[in-house]
Amino acid sequence: MDMSKLRMHADFIAPSILSADFARLGAEVDAVIAAGADLIHFDVMDNHYVPNLTIGPPVCAALQQHGVSVPIDVHLMVDPVDRLIDDFARAGARYITFHPEASRHIDRNLTQIREAGCLAGLVFNPATPLAAVRHVLDKLDMILIMSVNPGFGGQSFIPGALTKLREARTLIDTSGYPIRLEIDGGVKLDNIGAIAAAGADTFVAGSAIFGSADYTATITRMRQAIAAARQA
Ligand code: DX5
Ligand code: ZN
User: Fold this and answer.
1) 169-200 core/surface letters (b: 16 or more CB in 10 A; e: else)
2) Alpha-carbon distance 73 to 81, whole Å?
3) How far is CA 156 from the centre of its chain?
4) Catalytic one among 43, 46, 73, 141?
5) 37 CA distance to ligand 2 middle (Å)
6) pLDDT at residue 192 tops 80
7) Known catalytic residue: 87?
8) Which residue has the higher pLDDT, 42 or 132?
9) Which long-range contacts (CB under 8 A, 24 or more apart) does 102-109 make?
10) What is the model's pLDDT at position 4?
11) What is the pTM for the complete model shown?
12) Is 123 left (phi over 0), alpha (psi -120 to 50) or beta?
């Protein structure tokens, strides 16, 4: 049997609320969860690390209080990350991921996330090598590969991300740690199969889901495309 096809846990679909209707955020989150979402991907932008500004801990806490029945996956695109890690842990985040460029002490921040009771991850921009991963594999619950430059929804998938996914998949499988491998940016129905084949097990999709007329149909078709790629 091809060991690379063995996954420690199921594939996760993670709708990014960046493309949701923010005026109806609670209802939008309810709708994607009813449609089969496994995680809610929560993009935090600070107009400093990335040229855009989004939502912070009070919105995460409001969703938590509203009653979100799946884990919240907080993607920090902020510099520095130190204070916001604890703020998001208190606000109900389950996963907290950050970019190595935005941290002076990567190992310390990963430990901080776990000590706050959350799962920790590092995010790699299209031009950022995976080098930082090798020395902290025991402190990671997630590796997130960016397939666009962070800052905006609705951009096109950068194909080089597939090569980096394969590299990350090999690192994870060799390490033996149960680290999820997430992809973020330009994920659509027509490329999600190739992304799964390259090793991803967690699929962020913003515009592809929230821009569709039927969230259930879109998520179901994504799962079918992933399953077809796994069987190929
Ligand atoms: C981009 C964000 C993504 C974004 C993806 O900086 O990190 O999560 O919402 O949006 P789509 O799926 O539309 O590329
Ligand atoms: Zn994101």
Assistant:
1) bebbbeeeeebbbbbbbbbbeebbbebbbbbb
2) 15
3) 17
4) 43
5) 15
6) yes
7) no
8) 42
9) 102/49, 102/76, 102/77, 102/78, 104/80, 106/132, 106/136, 107/135, 107/136, 107/139, 109/81, 109/82, 109/85
10) 46
11) 0.96
12) beta
Q: Domain with 101 in it: what CATH number?
A: 3.20.20.70
Collapsed DSSP state (helix, strand, coil) of residue 186: coil
43 classed as catalytic: yes
Count of domains for the chain: 1
Average pLDDT over residues 87-116: 98
Beta pairing partners, 15 = 205
Q: Let me know how many helices (H) and strands (E) the chain has, helices first.
A: 8, 8
Pocket test for ligand 1, best of 12, 13, 45, 155 (most atoms within 8 A of CB): 155
Pocket of ligand 1 (CB under 6 A): 16, 18-19, 41, 43, 75, 148, 150-151, 153-155, 184-187, 204-208
3-class DSSP assignment, residue 16: strand
Range of the domain at 140: 3-231
